[in-house]
Design goal:
Length: 128
């Protein structure tokens, strides 16, 4: 259900590379949540760096939503960049697994296309 890729880059450098890879693959970054900053602003001490990118490919999202509007609860796709055991990780939930929960088999191909694109984006970000 989870795809994780480690990199030697810092969280900041991986995030910069991820931003470029997202755009190069015709996805868009809708929002970036800085979890450490948000938690600290709320008075919760949180030391770990964690950036959560909300990404979307509008044409693919439309295909999915035209078939089953309730899938909007699983959109947009997220790619997280964070520190774990001294390494920077990029991680995402598998779109194919998420969409399978909606019992819409006609979306299997779209889900796999999105998943393949997200994995490509993550690999480009760690190797750039």
């Amino acid at each position: 259900m989870l795809i994780k890729i480690a990199t030697q880059k810092t969280v900041s450098d991986a995030a910069t590379a991820l931003q470029a890879a997202v755009q190069a693959n015709h996805f868009g970054v809708m929002q970036v949540h800085n979890l450490k900053e948000i938690m600290n602003k709320k008075g919760v001490a949180f030391a770990n760096e964690c950036l959560i990118f909300e990404v979307c490919q509008p044409q693919q999202a439309k295909k999915v939503l035209d078939e089953n509007m309730s899938v909007c609860t699983a959109l947009p796709c997220r790619i997280s960049v964070y520190q774990e055991d001294g390494k920077t990780m990029l991680a995402t939930l598998k779109p194919s697994t998420l969409l399978a929960m909606f019992n819409t088999p006609q979306l299997t191909e779209v889900a796999q296309e999105v998943e393949d694109s997200i994995v490509k984006i993550m690999n480009e970000a760690v190797s750039a």
